[in-house]
Amino acid sequence: MRHTRIIVTHYGGPEELRVIEEECPEPKNGEVRVRVLAAGVSLPDIMAREGVHPETPPVPFTPGWDLVGVVERLGDGVSGIEPGQTVAALPIHGAYAEFVCLPQRELVPVPSGLDAAEAVSLVLNYITAYQMLHRSAKVRQGQRVLIHGAAGGVGTALLQLGRLAGLEMYGTCSSRSAPAVSDLGGIPIDYQLQDFVKEIHRLTGEGVDVVFDPIGGTPYGKNIRPSRKRL
Ligand SMILES: NC(=O)c1ccc[n+]([C@@H]2O[C@H](COP(=O)([O-])OP(=O)(O)OC[C@H]3O[C@@H](n4cnc5c(N)ncnc54)[C@H](OP(=O)(O)O)[C@@H]3O)[C@@H](O)[C@H]2O)c1
User: Whose alpha carbon is nearest atom 25 of ligand 1?
Assistant: First the structure.
């Protein structure tokens, strides 16, 4: 059986994406062949395609950080999973393909009836956001947090999970994204027109408990003011 997948042979823009046809991969011992229903397109995918992400694979490679698909064939030594079952995975690369073989231990069951394209949006962005909130910062109800890039994939996930955790949230974004940040329970701060440090102090009086900064660069140091109790 043949299938198609997308490869990057030179790092660069979307024009570097190529579609190739080849024999379908066979699952090895402990692996499962998954028919991909939906693959995410995230900023890390784009950065890998451009060759600037720290986890960029060497070329040629198939992009695709996360996927939702259907179990199609079991390799030797696989049990407890059936063909036809819907699963999610986070292979980091390889998901832009019709079929992909993955170790069984990397597959997570997906409840039936969910739309695959909606479900895949939860995988990379929400795992990242969950870990930032609950494993790194260990936030507690009532804490005040500042989320940079609040309108992005990770930022909106942080807002939704932060709302469930009972946080008071502020989020930097451009003016066009402010309504989206407000709708998700954040107080928007326009990073293009406002100094976020001054604005946070104006809004809160004393700063915040936690800052999530996926942007980095020069403004990064402005997140921490050791002389203040908070930000
Ligand atoms: N996606 C993931 O799950 C994941 C996992 C690990 C790490 N990361 C890293 O997290 C970062 C964000 O990824 P993402 O997927 O959320 O990206 P994204 O969806 O492209 O969102 C990035 C957001 O950043 C905003 N932005 C740009 N410059 C800004 C600035 N100076 N201050 C505040 N906001 C600014 C933009 O907002 P406006 O539209 O409002 O301008 C945009 O919505 C990347 O560095 C990525 O590598 C992401």
Answer: 149
